[in-house]
Sequence to fold (84 residues):
Amino acid sequence: MGLQEEETGDPGLLQLVAYQPFGPRRGVAAVRVGREVLVLGVTNTDLKLLRVLDAAAIEEGPPGPSPTGCRGCGRSKRASMDNA
Fold:
């Protein structure tokens, strides 16, 4: 039956997570394959692997803001440069 089992509702081996078009017939797709998400550059004639991400990390989401709501607040630019 191919890569997707339509009768059971199982998403199958591949799942399109997101697609962002960047003009006619080109864009970036995020495709879940097992425990990984492949970020692909897509055109009408080519497909390039841009990055492989851990699907579990994506489900957790990006790190939230600090308790004060501002990352790096209270640090001067000089202190940041000294720590670099």
